Amino acid sequence: MSDAIAFLEPRANVMARRSIIIEDLADMLPPECLVHEARELVPFETDAFVAYRRLPLAVVLPKTTAQVSAVLKYCNRYGIPVVPRGAGTSLCGGAIPQEDAVVIGLSRLSRILEIDTFNRTAKVQAGVTNLAISDAVSPEGFFYAPDPSSQLACTIGGNIGMNSGGAHCLKYGVTTNNLLGVTMVLVDGTIVELGGKHLDAGGYDLLGLICGSEGQLGIVTEATVRLIAKPEGARPVLFGFETSEEAGACVTDVIGSGIIPVAIEFMDKPAIEICEAFAKAGYPLDVGALLIVEVEGSEAEMDAMLALIVEIARRHGVKTVRECQSATEAALIWKGRKSAFGATGRIADYICMDGTVPLSQLSHVLKRTGEIVEGFGLRVANVFHAGDGNMHPLILFNANDPDEAARAEAAGNEILKLCVDAGGCLTGEHGVGIEKRDLMRHQFSKADLDQQMAVRSAFDAQWLMNPSKVFPLDGRPETRAFSA
Amino acid sequence: MSAITINTTSEVNTVPMSAILVPVCEEEAAGMIRAAAAAGRRLQISGGNTRSGFGNRVEADAVLRSAAISGIVAYDPAEMVMTARAGTPVAEIEEILLENNQMLAFEPIDHRTVMGTEGEPTIGGVFATNASGPRRLLSGAARDSLLGIRFVNGQGEVIRAGGRVMKNVTGLDLVKLLAGSFGTLGFLTEVTFRVAPRPQTEQTLIVSGLLDEDAARAMALAMGLSVEVSGAAHLPDNVKGRFLNGRLPEGAATVLRLEGLSASVPVRAEKLTAALGRFGPISRIEADASAHLWHQIRDVLPYAGDSQKPLWRVSVAPGAGAALVLAFRQHAGVDAFYDWQGGLVWMRMEAEPDADLLRALIPRFGGGHATLMRASDALRASTPAFEPQPAPLAALSERVRQTLDPAGIFNPGKMGA
């Protein structure tokens, strides 16, 4: 376990009252909605950022908005920190609790409330998984567009907290572009409705503000999302290039040509080898970089778009072009890409970075990333959403070697700074959480961060929501001690 | 000290001429705002002043305009991203985009026609009012294209939020918060936004003679097909004649736009025609006429100029627009047409009915909000321009506002109830 990232010191007055708090929570909730035995708390001690873990004080799993409201009202009254949790798939430690915090899990808020094909909306409870929405509306010919890699497990509540993206957001946007309304509980237990089925919510764009707020502004219990008519067809094409630079230049030209594919995914040589060994997707092993470009539409449209894209790829010296002849082949191409993280996890421990850079900087950042990781004596595999500049270098290391773990973290930090310096940002879709919290000053000035923190305070004056996340611990309006 | 009229709309604000502040750079603006905050001097914020008549009447001691903070800062067409200073004319931006075969996907409405204003709309004004047009249905609103901003807060501090990349979840999204805040949270100095390729061609299908409710069904069906309709509007018989100089076919016009590759638009048009044939006769208009029609819809052409009759902009679920208008007609004479598949209703009242009546009806049709765009001075003085929010939400919004402008110097009163 690494100890480089600090947490706020648990509030002694809360810790001292632990058994009373658990009794009080038990009075508010049905027995099956409260978890407090140490052994049962273990599954909640971390998320997908497994290097850090802390046992929470208790976990509540409310079934209704009213129960969420009651718990929040209570915690707010007694100054007890609260950590919202969807499925715990956060890659940045966004759902890691701490000893004085009550976790509010969304898993029992898992009903799809309404599918409205006339208005193309679905209203769901926040614990519904991302993929469950698309599955539910698929028979009617619709889908929900944002598709994070964890879509089988991750919840819509978590997606809103992190403003999740996915491979197909180049065309359809990320969560914030597909969210129409929410029911949200504020920290004092007040229940508010933002937006609805109409296209633009009135007043200030609080819906836009809570998207990606990482559970710091309130807890969303219901969401109304936009549905999109399923395209007639979709077809991925595989392009193999000699070098990453050629692939990167091809991406820029495709985007600049006026065609917007639904996805452009990039893999470098190490990533190709790892994924091919695992998924047997038939990826070419004699190339230095690979692009998966997917287009949508009718057969005629896809033919027209792919002809243009292939022509651009040829101008950049493409070595291999594989158009798929069947749905099975298409699925196989995506299987390789979608299993990238899992496949990497089988051969080594890894940390996944999430910086985004302007497209013009892709080649430069890729090259420097390789140099940085090499400089720390480690290996890197790159697999990412190239169409929108969202990089995902996977830094491979051995978690049992504390020195390697520390070097991996240091290399990751250098890469994120590189992304910011290239005109990009620390995180494109995973969020800041605890992982990138201490790098925030590299991207934002003191005035920028102070303004964000002031807005945060307007929602949660005591800073109880999701403690230790997003903002550097020193310099916060709250004056709590912290320690590693 | 002489006084001048700031707005050419029915709203009349008078401030001393010496109190029109037109900074030429962000730093100068920040200094002016710091001075105003220190002196408790309230500022009316504007860009090109073509949209500043929106909202409640603003009581201000001076006008602060971004018009001179102008110019495109960065634009790489291959990245589909542009950065421009807030006072840059929209026309200048659209011209450069056109040269590069690109456009603003959200198709911003030019409010001069309907608000009866003059002057040069600015890109800052577009985002400050979240001004979006017909393509909002497919490609999102202005706020969805906005990637990053620089602004001066009410304490005169320069704040940067967002960035120039399409995916960014680093910190709180103050970009969205500022978009559509009508100059009440900050003075925008620079905006970075996503641009989109221009479609090779476009075509509009016209289904003729539908009642509003049937049009709503036809539009819902069209939007549910995989043909990527990029505009869905219904122009009832009484307004239809105002479009394209009366050249639309007989009867109400339900219009559906298709855009994209030349190889694909006709194919999709066939598919759409086959699906909608049972609703009524279908005709088509091609590229230039189609583009012209959607400009007129975007700019609310039928209700141009007629400034004394109250004009409302109502946002409801797309399926609710026609039903809402039908219900409202039980109480008052109203002329209406629909964009956004029926979810954006432009309503011109024949008289000055109680705004509360309209606002009370909206929740019965699934919720939404009504904005009073234009009316007599008397009606505007007695009617909150923006839909009043439930108390907890209004209180939250006010707490948020105070973090950006603690002294309350930016457009005071403009958005509140």
Give a verbal description of the structure.
The complex is a heterodimer of chains A (484) and B (417). Chain A is of the alpha+beta class and 484 residues long. Among the domains of chain A are: 112-229, 2-Layer Sandwich (Uridine Diphospho-n-acetylenolpyruvylglucosamine Reductase, domain 3), CATH 3.30.465.10; 233-340, Alpha-Beta Plaits (2-Layer Sandwich); 348-437, Alpha-Beta Plaits (2-Layer Sandwich), CATH 3.30.70. Chain A contains 18 helices and 20 strands. Chain A has helices spanning 12-16, 18-28, 38-41, 65-78, 130-137, 156-162, 169-172, 175-178, 206-210, 244-256, 269-279, 299-315, 327-338, 340-347, 362-375, 402-421, 440-443, 446-459; strands spanning 7-8, 34-35, 58-60, 82-85, 102-105, 112-116, 121-125, 142-143, 179-185, 191-195, 219-226, 228-229, 233-241, 263-268, 289-297, 320-323, 349-352, 379-385, 393-397, 482-483. In chain A, the strands form five sheets. Chain A has a seven-stranded antiparallel beta sheet with strand order 16-13-15-14-18-19-17, with helices on both faces. In chain A, β6 (112-116) and β7 form a beta hairpin. In chain A, α10 packs across α12 (299-315), α10 (244-256) runs antiparallel to α15 (362-375) and α11 packs across α13. Chain A is globular, with a radius of gyration of 23 Å. Chain A starts with 6 loop residues before the first strand and ends with a strand. The model of chain A has no long low-confidence stretch (mean pLDDT 93). Chain B has 15 helices and 20 strands. In chain B, the strands form six sheets. A five-stranded antiparallel beta sheet of chain B has the order 6-7-11-9-10. Mean pLDDT of chain B is 93; it is low at 1-12. Chain B has 417 residues and is of the alpha+beta class. Chain B has three domains: 1-198 and 387-417, Uridine Diphospho-n-acetylenolpyruvylglucosamine Reductase, domain 3; 201-298, Alpha-Beta Plaits; 301-382, Alpha-Beta Plaits. Classes of the chains: A alpha+beta (484), B alpha+beta (417). Chains A and B meet through β10, α9, α10, α12 and α18 of A and β10, α7, β12, α10 and β20 of B.
